[in-house]
Design brief:
Elements lengths: L9 H11 L11 H19 L3 H14 L3 H14 L2 H14 L6 H19 L2 E7 L4 E4 L2 E5 L2 E4 L3 E8 L6 E7 L5 E6 L21 H33 L4 H39 L3
Parallel strand pairs: 1-7
Antiparallel strand pairs: 1-4, 2-3, 2-5, 5-6
Helix pairs in contact: 1-2, 2-3, 3-4, 4-5, 5-6, 7-8
Length: about 290
């Protein structure tokens, strides 16, 4: 194992450790058995680390430290846990090393290492947030800031956030979420289309107004006029037939009654057409004012 702060091999580091046994955390009067046990644990941790067995190496170094406290062992523990990906424990051991060895020559390097690991640890704690929508291509905002379009994925800081998803022609969706360390969040959203034309029958700017009742009145006037003309012609036909030649009394009476009835109906329809025409004229202006 090569320590980064001293750039020395494990044998050299072992010698440094053994020389330090009489320093921090130990006295010259420390029983030889404790020093021997600490050395044995340390040598085992060294071998295990070089073999890439970092969890076992950390256990051996911890046993060495419990037997005889020494700051160098704390640094090596930090390296083991950094290899294992347990950045929080690695940072803790590096800090303990600096506290136990305040005059360490490699303090600037270790402090730089701690800062780098803290940044990496914070990045790993940020949960991954993924947003998809139907239809896709919706705009995603996080706390009022535009972040992209769906499907969208990114890491966000831990804590509360407001997500807003918008798409032209669809109702916007808003979600308040609480993000926790290391817990990814995936949202699959179904957007609701907006109504195609607001309120039914509502006119859009520039759209001509529809005069429904005006056309109803006009149609009624037209139908009544056609009926009046038709009945008038039929009444005239009956009159001409009655006057054209002599008829039996019953036949003559029938032609007379037919002509008279059709003439009356024609007059009624003519009056109806006139009323409908007047009503249509009034409705034309009335409906156009709204």
């Amino acid at each position: 194992m090569t320590t980064r702060h001293r750039r020395m091999s494990f044998p050299a580091l072992l010698v440094a450790l053994l020389l330090a046994l009489g320093g921090t955390g130990a006295s010259a009067a420390e029983p030889g058995a404790a020093r021997a046990a600490a050395r044995k644990h340390f040598e085992r941790g060294t071998t295990l680390y070089q073999e890439g067995r970092y969890a076992e190496a950390a256990a051996a170094f911890e046993a060495a430290y419990q037997t005889l406290a020494n700051g160098v062992v704390l640094y090596n523990l930090g390296q083991c846990y950094e290899k294992l990906g347990d950045l929080q424990r690695a940072i803790g051991y590096y800090r303990d090393y600096l506290r136990m060895v305040p005059g360490a020559e490699d303090r600037p390097l270790v402090e730089s290492l701690i800062a780098r690991l803290e940044k990496r640890h914070e990045e790993e704690r940020r949960p991954q947030v993924t947003v998809s929508s139907e239809p896709s291509g919706a705009r995603v905002q996080v706390d009022g800031e535009a972040r992209g379009v769906t499907p969208w994925s990114d890491k966000l800081v831990v804590g509360p956030h407001r997500l807003e998803v918008t798409h032209e022609g669809y109702q916007p969706l808003r979600r308040d979420v609480e993000l926790r360390p290391g817990e990814p969040l995936e949202l699959q959203l179904m957007l609701t289309p907006l109504p195609k034309s607001g309120v039914a029958g509502k006119l859009q700017p520039g759209q001509p107004r529809r005069r429904v009742w005006t056309w109803v009145a006009a149609s009624a006037a037209g139908a009544a006029a056609v009926g009046a003309v038709t009945l008038g012609l039929l009444a005239r036909s009956d009159s001409r037939e009655l006057l054209a030649r002599p008829h039996e009394r019953a036949e003559a009476q029938q032609l007379h009654d037919s002509a008279l009835g059709r003439a009356r109906a024609s007059n009624i329809l003519t009056g109806t057409a006139g009323v409908a025409l007047l009503a249509g004229t009034a409705l034309f202006y009335f409906e156009g004012s709204f």
